[in-house]
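Page 42, continued from yesterday. The earlier attempt failed because a stray header line got pasted into the input along with the sequence. Redoing it now with the clean sequence only.
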Amino acid sequence: MVLMTTTPFDYHQHPRTTERAADGPPTVRKSVRRRAVSPVTRFNSKAALGITRSVGTMWCAYVFAALALVSLPAALMSGSPIIIVGWIAQTFLQLVLLPVIIVGQNIQAAASDDRAAATYKDAGAILEEAKQIQMHLAAQDVATSALLERILAIEKKVVATK
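This time it went through. Structure tokens are written below.
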């Protein structure tokens, strides 16, 4: 007969769990901060974000459209199709589409941040579920060990009586 022994499982939390709790969900803002190492880079990043925030509004698109329309009469009075097409392509579209595209990108970045936050919350929930599973398994280990000890005791008695 073979006598069995028990060795309890020792759970060790993964180091990323602690990092994750400290970091929080990834966002565009955190990504920009992380990359801005030197004072010059930090200044350039802040300036670029400030300009992007001010230009990337629909109000700015409306102002640019009005500004582009100032030169429309001159383009039409020229009567030249090349000048009219040039005005549409180089003046109107570029001035108006720039802020509209930035608005769209800002909306997409916000949606991306929302997805990252949701994924972060989901990962946190999964982590907590895994911890519950670990506790459940630990409780089962205790119960299994107790049963094994009883079986071993019975086995000893059986061996002794033979």
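Notes: The chain is about 85% helix and 0% strand.
Reminder to self: strip header lines before submitting.
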